[in-house]
Design a protein that fits this description.
With 241 residues, the protein is α/β, with parallel strands linked by helices. It has helices spanning 18-22, 31-46, 63-68, 73-97, 119-127, 145-155, 189-195, 202-210, 225-230; strands at residues 11-16, 50-55, 102-106, 115-116, 131-135, 160-165, 170-171, 183-184, 186-188, 215-219, 237-240.
C-alpha cells in the first residue's frame, strides 16, 4: 500500500467510545458533536487518509454495567453490541451529510440496516475512498470494542490505531484527579500493561503488541487534531515497542 506524501499514517483505525458521541450530555447521542467528528474525519480523508472507525456503545448501554446489576453477562454484552449499531448509524448519517460515502459493517447480521462484516469487502471500501464504520464489536460477548478495534485494524492492515479521548495523551495518573500527573510522549506496550494504564483493555494492548501495531492516544475534542496526527505532528502519546 503506497503512502500519500506528507502522511505519517495512510490507513488508520479510529476508535471512538460511545462517550465521545455523547458530548456533555448525560446520555445518548449529541448530534452537533457527531457532526463535528464527521467534519474532522472528512478533513483527514481530504488529506489522503483511508479511515475505518470502531464505535463503542457506552453512551447507551454498557455490558459490564448490566452484568454488575445482575444480568447474564453474555446477554448484557449483546445488548451493548446493539448499542454500537445505533451509534454507527448516527455516525454514518452525519458523515453522509458531509458528502462522505460511508458503509456500516456489523459483526452481527442485520441486513436491513448494515452490511455484514466481510474482510475483503471492507478493505475494498477503504480502497475506494469510503469510510467503514465497524459495529457490534467482534460479534462475541466478553470482548470489548477496544479488542474489536485492535482486531479490525489488523484485518484492514491499518498503519495505526488512533484512540480519540477527552485528554491529550497518556499520563502517569488521571490528570483530572492528580494535578502532578505527567504526560508520556511515547510509552511501550509492556509499560502500559505493567502499570495498568487505562489506554485500552489488556487484550487489545496484547494484540497490538504481538503485531507491532502502534496506538496513538490524543484529544479528539480539539478541532483539527485528527488531521494533525495523520500528518505526523507530535500530538498525544504513541504506544509502541
Amino acid at each position: 500500500m503506497s503512502r500519500t506524501p506528507g502522511l505519517s499514517y495512510r490507513r488508520l483505525l479510529l476508535k471512538l467510545s460511545g462517550e465521545a458521541l455523547m458530548g456533555k450530555a448525560p446520555y445518548g447521542i449529541d448530534v452537533p458533536v457527531v457532526q463535528r467528528l464527521s467534519s474532522e474525519i472528512k478533513e483527514a480523508m481530504a488529506a489522503g487518509a483511508e479511515i475505518a472507525v470502531v464505535v463503542g456503545g457506552g453512551n447507551i448501554f454498557r455490558g459490564l454495567a448490566g452484568a454488575a446489576e445482575g444480568m447474564d453477562r453474555a446477554t448484557a454484552d449483546y445488548m451493548g453490541m446493539l448499542a454500537t449499531v445505533i451509534n454507527a448509524l448516527a455516525l454514518q448519517d452525519a458523515l453522509e451529510k458531509h458528502n462522505v460515502v460511508t458503509r456500516v459493517a456489523s459483526a452481527i447480521e442485520m441486513r436491513a440496516v448494515a452490511e455484514p462484516f466481510i474482510r475483503r469487502r471492507a478493505v475494498r471500501h477503504l480502497e475506494k475512498g469510503r469510510v467503514v464504520v465497524f459495529a457490534a464489536g467482534t460479534g462475541n460477548p466478553y470482548f470489548t470494542t477496544d479488542t474489536a478495534a485492535a482486531l479490525r485494524a489488523m484485518e484492514m492492515k491499518a498503519d495505526v490505531i488512533l484512540k480519540g479521548t477527552k485528554v491529550d495523551g497518556i499520563y502517569t495518573a488521571d490528570p483530572m484527579i492528580d494535578k502532578t500527573a505527567t504526560k508520556y510522549t511515547e510509552i511501550s506496550y509492556l509499560k502500559v500493561l505493567e502499570q495498568g494504564l487505562k489506554v485500552m483493555d489488556a487484550t487489545a494492548i496484547s494484540l497490538c503488541m504481538d503485531n507491532r501495531l502502534p496506538i496513538v492516544v490524543f484529544n479528539l475534542r480539539t478541532a483539527g487534531n485528527l488531521k494533525r496526527v495523520i500528518m505526523g505532528e507530535p500530538i498525544g502519546t504513541t504506544v509502541r515497542v
